[in-house]
Amino acid sequence: NDFQRKLAGLGIAKEDFLVGIHPGCISSRAWDEDKFALVIEGLQNKFQAKVVLTGGPQERAKGEKISSLCRQKPVNLIEKTTIPEMMALIKRLNIYIGADTGPTHIAAALGTPVLLIILGKNVKPVRWGSYNSQHLIIYAHPQAKCPLYCDSGRCKETYCSQVITPEIVLSAAQQLREGKSHDRSDWQRLSLNVCLIFDQANKARAEKVALELDNKGYHAVLFESKDLVGVKGIKRFLRLIETENILVLHQLGKKHAFWTRLANLLSGIYTTNATVLAKGYTENEDLLKKYSETFQKSLF
Predict the structure, then answer these.
(1) Reduced to 3 DSSP states, what percent helix, strand and coil does the chain have, rounded to the nearest 5?
(2) How far apart, in whole angstroms, are the C-alpha atoms of residue 177 and residue 175?
(3) How far apart (Å, rounded) are the C-alpha atoms in residues 30 and 129?
(4) How far apart are CA 244 and CA 31, in angstroms?
(5) Are 210 and 90 members of one domain?
(6) Distance CA 112, CA 95 (A)
(7) Is the pLDDT of residue 284 over 90?
(8) Which of 7, 67, 117, 274 lies at a CB distance of 3.0 to 4.6 Å from 12, suitable for a disulfide?
(9) Is residue 172 part of a domain?
(10) Do 265 and 149 share a structural domain?
């Protein structure tokens, strides 16, 4: 068809391994141009891939900067495709790389393998995972240890962008090429960061739960309930929620429960993510199911 001929005119053959990169995102923090350029060079060298840049007017400057940093230029199709052509291009791709933006979800719907880069703390894989395609998600948190309220569409800080390296993205692209994919259990693992709130009577139980979660790939931190008490305690705890990107508060005992409930309420005002509160624990309880159900109930 006409679009296939257009691609052929740009030096893209049917047999080429084709990777598309959508470098921008209006509502979320976008990855850095120099890192995208290194990924492009890695794709060209390791996969012998052809790389195309996609996007609209808001990606123009970013695309030009990326191209200027590449020794072997990608095919820059930013602002050069109609919507039907954009969809045909995405369907043709062997791998699509982008942030949480419209074309990413189009790629998932079309069955194109997706590499989703998430920098914003407010974008949770458990809510925004790519449902219909092979995909891998690279999420910057809590490894970034960012202490700031996440205004990811405007933020210029580098906590999140530094923690995701070109090597991590290239490794994920290789895994996609080998057929690997995330599923719903991975979305939970990446999203449901847990703070276990304990008192001295159940400290050993809290440590055991933390170890179990860690062994399953979850991020869990411990916090003693007495340290929550008072204004200073609440402020310290809210900073912990922000820095560790906590989504689930799990109170194992009953001491100082008022302060836990207060912190849970205040998280919706003073931290990026409103936390959800899980209570109690019994032996052999399926904690992951407990956390997931608690989170799902909070959405309605």
Answers:
(1) 50, 15, 35
(2) 5
(3) 18
(4) 21
(5) no
(6) 7
(7) no
(8) 7
(9) yes
(10) no
Q: How many other C-beta atoms are found inside a 10 Å radius of the C-beta of residue 15?
A: 6
**Smallest Cα–Cα separation from 249: which of 233, 235, 267?**
267
Single-letter amino acid, residue 175: Q
Residue type, 199: D
Phi, psi angle pair for 60, to nearest 5°: -60, -55
Question: Are 139 and 213 part of one and the same domain?
Answer: no
Structural domains of the chain, count: 2
**Same domain for 30 and 170?**
yes
CATH, residue 240: 3.40.50.920
* pLDDT tens for each residue of 157-171: 889 999 999 999 999
Question: Residue 291 above 80 pLDDT?
Answer: yes
Give the domain range for residue 10. Answer: 2-182
Distance, CA of 97 to CA of 175 (rounded, Å): 13
* Run of H or E residues at 241: helix 230-244
State the burial class of residue 261 (Cβ atoms within 10 Å of its Cβ: 0-12, 13-18, 19+). middle
Helices and strands, number each (H, E), in the chain: 13, 10
Sequence letter at residue 202: N
Model confidence band, residue 131 (pLDDT cutoffs 50, 70, 90): low
What is the mean predicted confidence (pLDDT) over 168-187? 95
Strands 248-251 and 50-53: unpaired
Is residue 141 domain-shared with residue 276, that is, in the same domain?
A: no
Q: In this structure, are 31 and 164 located in the same domain?
A: yes
Per the CB < 8 A criterion, the answer to whether 276 and 295 are in contact is yes
Question: In sequence order, what are the residues at sequence separation of 6 or more whose Cβ sits closer than 8 angstroms to the Cβ of residue 208?
Answer: none
Here the CATH number for the domain that contains residue 10 is 3.40.50.2000
Does some domain include residue 187? no
- Count of positions (residues) in the chain: 300
Segment 48-68, tens digit of pLDDT = 999 999 999 999 999 999 999
